[in-house]
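seq:
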Amino acid sequence: MKTNVGEKIAEIRKRKGLTQDEVAERANVNLRTVQRIESGETDPRGYTLSSICKVLEVNIEDILDYGKTEDKSFFVYLHLSVLAGCIIPLGDIIIPLILWLTKRDKIVDLNFQAKNLLLFRACFDFVMFLFMVGSMIYVFHSGGPEEVGFRMIIIYSVFIGINFLVSLSYPVYVAISINKSDRLKSYYPRFIKG
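struct:
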């Protein structure tokens, strides 16, 4: 059974020997607010969550991740799901997005991993699109018809090579790395913090 944030706050409060009134007073929030949070009527946000965490001497992340499970095998599937882009146009974004949306509240660190993966894939796809369009414009405006075919072969070879390295090889490397490591980390360039 999944434990909510309020139950985790109540558990820590009791373990520290504090009453709801003491937490409310020290956190500078209303007693009724603390009661509603602990009963699960509402989830703490912003200032309230930060203040309560300071009083309880816990990290906000520890409270918010409470009730979520750790599932390394799901991260392997998430990172390998970008291979769908080889079969489905934009599948390297759509399939990981679906996986993330279905499990984002159930797995620890999934939001961070999925956001980095999706942002990287979107940026990579956009850069590759610009590369192809720019290359085609250059080829068709820079030479005669006899040179166009040869240049297009070179451009497509470069495109396929880059795509192979990033779209096929790297997700497999990430999946293997996740299985071998004890600690989950960011495998893509960090575009976001969190």
